[in-house]
Design a protein that fits this description.
Elements (H helix, E strand, L loop, with lengths): L1 E6 L6 H17 L5 E8 L8 E8 L5 E7 L2 H25 L1
Parallel strand pairs: 1-2
Antiparallel strand pairs: 2-3, 3-4
Helix pairs in contact: 1-2
Amino acid sequence: MTINIQYLHMPTSEAMNELLTHKLEKLSAKYDWIISTDVYFKLSNDPRGKNKVCEMKMEVPGPRIFATSTEDNFEKAAAQTLKDIERQLKKRKAIYSKH
């Protein structure tokens, strides 16, 4: 699996890269049919303080899987996005295992 992490209009974080790479590799071991993952971190204009955005696009057989979340820090945003991605992967696996 190929992992591409991008930080849009902000400095990169090596610690965040390592954490996310580790978690995505665990997902890849569980679902070996994942081709690649693109992760985008960016800031939004939210007056309530939840302005950290994490978006993930996953290339898998069939339609792409996409999830996004907005939180008050990037770790929470990444964790929520990963949770959403894993839920979609479970659904996809259930559909393909029936065929």
